[in-house]
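Exam prep: given the inputs below (a chain plus zinc ion), describe the expected output before reading on.
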Amino acid sequence: MAREWESVIGLEVHLQLNTGTKVWCGCSADYDNSPINTHTCPICLGHPGALPKLNEKVVEYAIKAALALNCDVNKVSRFDRKNYFYPDLTKGYQITQFDHPYAEHGHIDVTLKSGKERKVGITKIQIEEDTGKSMHAGDESFINYNRASMPLIEIVSEPDMRSSEEAYEYLNLLKDAIKYTEISDVSMELGSLRCDANISVRPKGEEKFGTRVEVKNLNSFKAVARAIDYEIGRQIETIEEGGSIDQETRLWDDEVQVTRVMRSKEEAMDYRFFPEPDLVRLVISDEQIEAIRETMPESKVDKMARFARDYKLSTTDAAILCEEMELADYYEAAVKASNNPKTTANWIMTEVLRVLKEENKDITEFSITSEDLGEIIKLIDGGKISSKIAKKLFEIKLTDERTPAEIVEAEGMAQVADTGAIEAMVDEVLANNPKLIEDYKEADEGRKPRVMKGLMGQVMKASKGKANPTIVTELLIKKLS
Ligand SMILES: [Zn+2]
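Solution:
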């Protein structure tokens, strides 16, 4: 009988902090949009004798990340030197945190599609610096040091995940949690979020971990999931064929969908960590942590729960509205103006998101303010305009400076609630449609509403969509019975 296997996955996530300046010097952190090697100084170029000074904002942002990921912030932590040679690392070492990181013992609660839940532990978060960037063109190589000493945090998970789906969900939740704190762009595309995966397999029921393989070069969350699935399959197959797994680093090739050896254990580096002599220990006070905790925005998870509870929305709708913090803010401001949470949610999810998609904009660039959207909904609820006319009003408002009420007034869009005027239209429609009246009288109870809808449609058409539908229905029922 074939053995049953269990996979063990841990993730290391690097996040760039958008603090504006680098971690040890005052150089601009706008490394990608500037001419190469323009944001450098003796400190981030690693000149001998140049002394690093810790950026206060980096500490603040790092604490925000720790709080967002349910970590304990250590009152005292230390920086260490990780020694290795790399052309884009001029100092010959990277300043990082090793065995005394600033944050530990966090977790992310992952819920899978099956409803199964798993608490994934976060071992530690450390503050460190980025390297420069090498570029290769044919036989020549170039180095851009704009990125050298960009502030990073590395978030190391416990080996708690058991499938690619869990890893994928973990990454999404981590991204959401950080995005709401606004400390990082969290974009894999832009390189502000990078992920490496540690993967091993073991026979089910076994306590001891199998030999783990580190996979790098993962450029999307989907690639992380695919690489994990590939690696699990490769490792099980190797063992079942009588082979063994080597502790090594492999690179994911997204085009061919395989992992390949990058370096084996024999080539593994000994980094000779030792305490960084140029920096004092990092001391963080309770007051500092509490002050930062107070500035933390409501988390996405909490906001979604509150939207579902207070505005009586489905979890799916709450998730859509909370996808971006700015969209959630827009929704809440619109609800304040409309006093109708459900209809406001529907308008945003259909009309507003449709326009944003068409125009390739985000909500902060949207031309209709939350107050104006709320007013449009209020005009519907107050019987001033029909929903159909409201769609027209919305389209006009996209490029019109006037208030929704002013447009309704000026364009003659107000709903006709004058019973006498509507009655005249109903009479005319009935006079022109004797066959529909016959139809209605002969129809059984199940079909009657359908015929009624047809007559309704005729009256609404005659009124150019402006007749109050409630009055139309009442009149039709009265006249047909
Ligand atoms: Zn610098």
